[in-house]
Amino acid sequence: MKLTGKVAIVTGGSRGIGAAICDRLAKAGADVVINYRSHQEGAQATLEAVQKAGASGHIVQADLSQVENIQRLVEESIEHFGKVDILVNNAGLEKRSDFWEVTEAEYDLVLNVNLKAVFFACQAVVRHFRATQNPGRIINISSVHEELPFPHFTSYCASKGGVQMITRNLAVELGEMGITVNNVSPGAIATSINQTLLDNPEKRKQVTRNIPLGRLGDPEDVAGLVAFLASDEAKYVTGSTFYVDGGLLWNYKEQ
């Protein structure tokens, strides 16, 4: 999977799955724009990994809950590298709360970062693709919880269900331009967003029992699929959702 000469934007690239995606795309030859919101040290570490892989990197701080910041991210990426070929919408967050306790501010934060940011990042990049007649690639990082209920995380599930439908709709609308849009939906991955699970041996054992492959995933398990979808090997793949979950979705039993 060669991405030599390509430029990718990866949102939320300072840690976890996002950092692994940046590293994997760089190893395939792509130059990478590393977006972060607050973890500057992590973004710098990702940049060093990209450079170690032999690619060029550029860091852009942007709070993706603000549309003007999304537009600035894309504009600065184009200004720095001259173009964008690949967008990976990876940034996301979750807030645990009983449904009857969720505040409007909590709801807005989750939906703004997980759904609105995906919508407007796609829009900004598609405008560039159209202006340059570039049949680019868009890869959205969703979650098994676009399909799988997750009690106490209703806003998160709603946001990820929306990401899946954005993916399907854009694949149809943008197909005539040669732009592909796909969805990668991780299950239980060993990252900081799942730190509570990682720190609780009993809870981790309960989750692992639901995974046919018998382990939590690694960020690299997601990154390899993203690299494939960004490459010409996937040029006839669009509108699809790929579950990277060790079989969890079809074997899950709520404890």
Tell me what you see in this structure:
This protein is α/β, with parallel strands linked by helices and about 260 residues long. It is about 45% helix and about 15% strand. It has helices at about 15-25, 40-50, 65-80, 105-130, 155-175, 195-200, 200-210, 220-230, and strands at about 5-10, 30-35, 55-60, 85-90, 135-140, 180-185, 240-245. It has a seven-stranded parallel beta sheet, with helices on both faces. Helix 1 (about 15-25) packs across helix 8 (about 220-230), helix 3 packs parallel to helix 4 and helix 4 runs parallel beside helix 5 (about 155-175). The radius of gyration is 17 Å and the shape is globular. The relative contact order is 0.15. The model has no long low-confidence stretch (mean pLDDT about 95).
Number of helical segments?
8
Which series of helices and strands comes N to C?
EHEHEHEHEHEHHHE
Average predicted local confidence, pLDDT = 94
What kind of sheet is the major sheet? 7 strands, parallel
Q: What attributes does this structure have?
A:
255 residues, alpha/beta, 7-stranded parallel β-sheet, 45% helix, 14% strand, globular, NAD(P)-bd_dom_sf, Glucose 1-dehydrogenase, oxidoreductase, SDR_fam, EC 1.1.1.47
Can I get a quick summary?
This protein is α/β, with parallel strands linked by helices and 255 residues long.
Write the layout of secondary structure elements.
Elements (H helix, E strand, L loop, with lengths): L6 E4 L5 H12 L3 E6 L3 H13 L4 E5 L5 H15 L4 E4 L14 H29 L4 E5 L12 H21 L5 E7 L8 H4 L2 H9 L9 H12 L10 E4 L11
Parallel strand pairs: 1-2, 1-4, 2-3, 4-5, 5-6, 6-7
Helix pairs in contact: 1-2, 1-8, 3-4, 4-5
